[in-house]
Amino acid sequence: MIELEGLPELVDPVLIAAFEGWNDAGEASSGVIAHLEAEWKATELASFDPEEYYDFQVTRPIIEMGEGLTRSIIWPTTRLLVARPPGAGRDVVLLRGIEPNMRWRSFCAEIVALCRKLGVEMAVLLGALLNDSPHTRPVPIVGSATDENLAQAINLELSRYEGQTGIVGVLQQAFAAADIPAVSLWASVPHYVAQPPSPKATLALLRRLDDLLKIHMPLGELAEESRAWEHGVDELAAQDSEVADYVRELEERKDATELPEASGDAIAAEFERYLRRRDHDGDN
């Protein structure tokens, strides 16, 4: 068990977590944590002992070169960081890790115990999956919550997935057992452009976090990167008629089965996000 010493007094903290690996198509969800860590200048609170949870023949350490011939080994691990977003009125605990290779229940129990010590009031777990959604349409975000009332309160489109799960699904159940409200948000990444990065999916997750937590999420260059990514995929598709035909088929299927996102809840959420961004920019 990790022992936290000199713990800062946190204000109404919420956890945002993502894991590299099976749960992280296109590195879209771990990209959210990396982005927020940099934008909010988060400070590390603790890291897990990799000996406990990782098989180094499966998840190998990495050698990095420093100055001259100096080398250092970067071990696979999971880290907790804390940030105080400007104007948020609450703290955010960020968890960025790699899906462990073993002892998942102990791993999740340790995370839940740490969150109890930190006073975490809610956990938001992020994931990304490969899907047949076209890259030209808004990124679908689905999810699940630890209870139906919470799902309804945040207007969450519930996932109907049944099948194999990753550490995100197991950790959400661990939070539910500990009576800590937990939500998971999953972005759909087009399977024909699965290679990272996926800035459009990362951006979609950040905007959903903004709506969910009512915390200004700094977007940085992600909007521009998302447009450049989509333009690049357009150009690649234009060079292959079969891919272009497939994308058009996906677009037609998507448009035929889904109404435009113009519901009252969607419009209200977008307007609230606009007001938060306007107020935040006015404070700078």
Automatic annotation (TrEMBL):
SUPFAM superfamilies: Cgl1923-like (SSF159659)
Protein's name in the database: PAC2 family protein
Entries under InterPro entries matching the protein: Proteasome_assmbl_chaperone_2, PSMG2_sf, Rv2714-like
Pfam families: PAC2 (PF09754)
